[in-house]
Amino acid sequence: MLTLDEAGLNLADVAAEARRRLEPAHWDFFAGGAGGERTVRANEAAYTRRWVVPRVLRGTGERDLRICLLGEPVSMPVLVAPTAFHRLAHPDGEVATARAAAEAGTVMVVSMAATRGVEEIAAAGGRLWFQLYPQPDLEFTAAVVRRAEAAGCRALVVTVDSPVFGRRERDLRHGFVDLPPGLACENMRDTDGRVRTIEMDAGLGWERIAWLRGITSLPILLKGVLHPADARLAVAHGVDGLLVSNHGGRQLDGALATLDALPGIVAAVGGRLPVLVDGGVRRGTDVLVALALGATAVLVGRPVLWGLAVGGAAGVRHVLDLLRADLDRALALAGAARPADLGPDLVAGPDLVA
Ligand code: FNR
User: Pick the catalytic residue: 86, 90, 247, 318?
Assistant: First the structure.
C-alpha cells in the first residue's frame, strides 16, 4: 500500500513525490522536452484554455466509462502511452506498468525502448500494443514486429514524428546519453543476443507504412500526426487509427499543442478512423475535453512514470485510478453518462463556440 503522502491527491502530488525519489538526471529525462520546452508547456496549457459547458438535469445515474477500441473493449478511455526506460523509475520496470494497466483494464503501449523484453511484459497479463520506430534495416524491423506479434501484442503503434532525434538540453547538461550499466533496450536484441542501438530513419516515407501493412495483419496506428493533410493520407494508406501527438514535446519544439491540433485531425478523418491524443493530460476534465472534441481515447506518458517511481505497479495503478475517478466525476458533473454522450457543444474556449 502507498502512504497518503506517496499516493497524492492528484497527479501533481505524485510528480512531486517522484521528483524527490528519482536521481536528478532521470527526473529530467522523464520531465524534459526538446529545445526551450515550449511544446511541453503548451500541451498542458492548451487544456487550461478550454472550459466545460455542463448540461444539467440529465439524470445520468451510474456512469459507464467503457469504450470499444479496434473492436475490443477497454475499461476507460485512458491508455498508457509508450515511454522508454521504465527501469530507471523502478526495478520492475515495464512489467510493473503492465500489471497496473491490466488491473485497470486498459491498454499499455510498450515502447520499442522498453527495458524489459516484450515477452516478459506480456506475461504480466493485460492487453498490449507495441510501439515501433521503423528501423532502416528492414529485416530487423520485420523481426521486431514478429516478436511483438508472437508475444501477443494486439496492434502496432508506428511513431512517425521522429525522423531524427530531438535535442533535449536537460539530458545534454547531465551528460545523460545512455542507460546505466545492466539496463538495455531488451526489444532491440538481435538473434546473436547483441543489443542494437535504436536508429531514427530520416528516409521514412509512406511507402514504409505500405511495407509494414504487407508484413503484418496487426492493426496499425500512426503516432505523431498533427497536420490534417497527413491524417487524410493516413486514411488513404489504410491505417487503422491515428494518435495525435508531438511526443510530449520531446521532438520538435514549437510543434502545435496536441489539443489544438485535435479538431483539425478529427475533421479530416471524418469518423473513418479512431483518433487518439496524448500530451499534457493530467485531470479527468482534460480527458473529458479531449473526448468532447472528438478523441476516442487519450494516453498518458509522464504520469505513469511518476507513479512507477513512487510505488511500482501500485503507483501506476494509483495514477490510473485517480484519472478514472476524476473522469467519472467530471462526466457526472457535465451531465454525461458515457464517453459517447460528449460532444463539442460541451466545450468553450478559443475558436470554439459552445
Ligand atoms: C516518451 N514518448 C515516447 N514515444 C514513443 O513513441 N516511443 C518512446 O520510446 C517514447 N519514449 C518516451 C520517454 C519519455 C520519458 C517520455 C516522457 C515520453 C512520448 C510518449 O509516448 C507520449 O507521446 C508523451 O509522453 C505524451 O505526453 P505526456 O502524457 O507525457 O504529457
Answer: 247
Q: How far is CA 238 from CA 178, 222, 235, 272, in A?
A: 36, 11, 5, 10
Write the CATH number of the domain with boundaries 4-52+77-336.
3.20.20.70
The answer to whether residue 227 is catalytic is no
Q: Is 293:275 a contact under the CB 8 Å cutoff? A: no
pLDDT digits (tens, 9 = 90+) for 149-208: 999 999 999 999 999 999 999 999 999 989 999 999 999 999 999 999 999 999 999 999
The interface predicted TM-score (ipTM) is 1.00
DSSP per-residue letters across 188-199: GB-TTSPBPPP-
Q: Which residue has the cell 473522469?
A: 327
The pTM (predicted TM-score) of the whole model is 0.98
pLDDT in tens, 243-279: 999 999 999 999 999 999 999 999 999 999 999 999 9
* Cβ < 6 A, ligand 1 pocket: 29-30, 43, 81-84, 111-113, 131, 159, 223, 245, 247-248, 250, 278-281, 300-302
Q: How far does residue 56's CA lie from ligand 1's centre (Å)?
A: 37
In whole angstroms, what is the distance from residue 134 CA to residue 128 CA?
A: 18
